[in-house]
From TrEMBL:
Belongs to the MoaD family. Coiled coil: none annotated. This is Molybdopterin synthase sulfur carrier subunit. GO terms for cellular component: molybdopterin adenylyltransferase complex.
Amino acid sequence: MSNPSISITVKLFAAYQEAYGTSELVLEFPNGTPVKAVCDRLISDRPELKQFRDITRYGINLIFVEPDTPLQNGDEVVLIPPVSGG
């Protein structure tokens, strides 16, 4: 049984946006990948984000979700690290 890839849009905020220099990425993952894998991929590309791995909140299509929620094709994912006020 094949496991086709899916395409998702990732909205970046705060430290993630600063690290990537953009507010949005389009990434492909195998179907059924958990949303936490998005964070893992971003951290593997930008190791300075590792400090946020355990404290980032996840949203899919404007709804907060658990880290193991599976992604579906076309999902819009947000990664929200803690934001310091100022």
